[in-house]
Every structure is written in structure tokens, then in C-alpha cells.
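Each field is set out as follows.
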Amino acid sequence: MSRISTTFAVLATQGRKALIPFITAGDPHPDMTLSLMRALVAGGADIIELGVPFSDPMADGPTIQRASERALAHGMSLRRVLALVSEFRKENATTPVVLMGYANPVETYGVEAFARDAGKSGVDGVLVVDYPPEECAAFAAVMKQADIDPIFLLAPTSTEKRYDEVAQIGSGYIYYVSLKGVTGSGALDLDEVARRIPLIRAKVGMPVGVGFGIRDGATAARIAAVADAVVIGSRIIEEIEGGDAQGAAQRVTTFLSGVRAAMDGEKP
């Protein structure tokens, strides 16, 4: 059983939902990524989504775009991202790490070489935003051969045909984009999310995480009531941006701890 499957299975026995925070590798500096990953774990992260910086992140709003720009300015690359995951694995063998990014760096690296090196580094899942499932059977097969879960997006506009396509080749969990927009948007329709999640879960047969537009513990708790996981990205990047670099890890832990407590039904 993969680290991702094990994590969801353990949480299910506890009656809890997964908290999946996102940071961009190399932001605000490559030397700080490991400390930020540790901060996420300390704050209650069950799975870490680690963004691979890219110059044209079409699904991301301005906050994560800025994070990519800072990381790229420091020479961050996919190869360096894998090296960071390898370092993280030396001290943490249990927390799943999912790489989230775009096709260009993967294609430049070479799909088979990427699968091989990502597997060796300890990557558990890969979500390539601009790889549509109907064109990705071969990619998904290569990932699975390396014991990496190919994770796919579904959106409010996705059809039942798309649900079926994702169910056939995806694994690990589904990332449901909760709104028609980019990361960090505030136009989140919680009632629509609550209606969609049971339909998706029944079709795809795997856990469903919800992201885009989740900015506080109260919203995360409402999402956790209907979904299997809550994904938070832009709000964490704002914590990193929101003060001196030396205090970023503590700010991230403090914020995420509050979200974790809300999801677990703890009173502030």
C-alpha cells in the first residue's frame, strides 16, 4: 500500500480528514524549503503538495505566481525539487509528498527519467495540471510502474465522462477544484461542493480532496465535513510572504495548526 493510501486509511479509522497544504519548492529561497516542509508537518499536514515552479502557471492566481517567480529567480528546477524531496525523506519516511506542477518541466526532463528519479527521491504522487486524462494513459502507466500515484483534477464543469476517464487511470486521490477560477480566488460555493463530492466519490472510487479558495479554519471544517481532504495553498504562501523570512516557518505552523484544529472540531 502506498504512503498516500496508508494515510487515508489511517485517517478513516480515526474519523478524521486529510489536511494537504501546498508550498512552492524554492520559495522564498531553496534553503528554506526543508524547514517549511517540517513546519507543515508540525502544523498537522497529512500530505504535502510541493509545487514545481514554472514560468507560466496558468491555473494559479497571483499569489502562487509570485512564489514561482521567486523560486525561479533562485535557480529552482525540477531536478533540485527532487533533491529536496530526497533530503526530506532522510528525516521523514511517512508523510506523503505530491509534486504539483505543469507539463513543460516534466517533458523537458523526460517522462521515464522523471518517473525513475522521482520514485528514487521518495515522491508519492504527481499532479500535472495541464495533462488531461484522456491523453495521459501512457504517462499514468509509467508513474504507476514507479510506485507513484498519478493524481488528476476535476472541476465544477467536469462531465461524468471525465469522471470515468479519471477513475480509469488515476490513483491516490482526486483533486476537486472547487470553483471556476484560479488558485486563491474567494468565490467558493460550499453548497455546490457538498452536492458534487458524493457524486464524484461514487464514480471514481477514491478519496476526494478539495482545493482553491479555502482560506481559513471555518471553511476548511465545512469542506472536511463532506470531502476526504482539504487542500490549502495560496493562504499559506501569504503567510510566508507576510513577514521576515526567518519567521516564516513558525507563521506557517501556527496558521496550519488552527486549520487542523478546526477540521478536527476543536474549539479555538
Q: What stands out?
A: The radius of gyration is 17 Å. Residues 248-263 form the longest helix (16 residues). The first strand starts at residue 18 and ends at 24.
